[in-house]
Design brief:
single chain; 273 residues; alpha/beta; five-stranded mixed beta sheet; two-stranded antiparallel sheet; 41% helix; 15% strand; disordered N terminus
């Protein structure tokens, strides 16, 4: 390949057609490399990944290259909901509506999704820190019950050792409002918060993660058994999503890097939920 940097290509209008085609091919190759780790990355995340790797390319040109190379993504089917809100447990008010946060361990949010396998489904529960969008606890089980969510909560508590007063926010599912789960929250001095009835946006952050998980991992692989899920899913959560996946809301940084950069600073970004 010719020794022409992509930045030279975009600033030098005197390049020949062959040189421009070589530069396009170089960008296409970089995109294909990124898609190995981020198979469902759209053109906006790709722009920022390329920039972080020292490759300057405009949005219009990248879209053209993706279109000419057949690298635009095709939409996938939506996933079904797993909220079981028809129960007699106490439902708590929404404490985070239009709340402002400026650090970790202020609000944790949880959700559950399913993963299809050959003989049925397995279920995944996660907890996110809403400041950094980092997955801080997760659990996989064949049963969609209180133990599933409790295992994720206990992982998050062990990892984060949260101070008293963290708001724990979820939908109105019975798995989050059953006695043993609520007891664990109260023993660790959490404030309980639930989505409002019939409001799909009150837990949008957790649902956004589940959508990312499905589009960028689950739909891209073969999960035949629960052992496949247990073997493959942790790598995506811990090594790809937490450490590498860029978030537009985090100034195009991965969650762990965002925490590392901003939690040592007094002047931190502020988010309104």
């Amino acid at each position: 390949m010719m020794e022409i940097s992509t930045s030279t290509y975009y600033t030098d209008s005197k390049l020949t057609r062959e040189e421009k085609e070589e530069a396009d091919a170089d960008i296409r190759g970089k995109v294909e490399q990124l898609r190995v780790t981020f198979p469902r990355a759209g053109y906006r995340p790709l722009l920022h990944h390329l920039k972080r790797n020292g490759i300057k390319v405009g949005e219009t040109r990248l879209r053209r290259i993706l279109g000419e190379s057949g690298l635009f993504l095709k939409p996938k089917r939506k996933f079904m909901r797993t909220t079981m809100s028809d129960h007699d447990e106490l439902v708590h008010p929404n404490l985070i509506h239009e709340m402002t946060i400026d650090g970790v361990n202020q609000v944790w949010a949880g959700d559950i999704t399913y993963i299809r396998i050959n003989n049925g489904f397995v279920f995944l529960a996660v907890l996110l820190d809403l400041y950094s969008r980092k997955v801080i606890g997760w659990s996989v089980s064949k049963r969609i019950d209180g133990q599933l969510t409790l295992d994720a909560l206990q992982m998050a508590i062990k990892r984060r050792r949260p101070p008293a007063g963290v708001i724990h926010h979820t939908d109105r599912g019975v798995q989050y409002l059953c006695d043993k789960y609520v007891t664990e929250l109260k023993e660790n001095n959490f404030h309980l918060s639930c989505s409002r009835k019939g409001n799909p946006y009150d837990n949008a952050w957790s649902e956004s993660f589940m959508k990312t998980l499905k589009y960028e991992e689950v739909f891209m692989r073969e999960y035949n058994t629960i052992l496949d899920v247990i073997d493959k899913l942790p790598h995506f959560i811990e090594e790809v999503y937490n450490k590498k996946r860029l978030h537009s809301s985090l100034n195009y940084l991965p969650p762990e890097e965002f925490e590392d950069i901003y939690m040592e600073q007094e002047d931190r970004p502020v988010f309104k939920l």
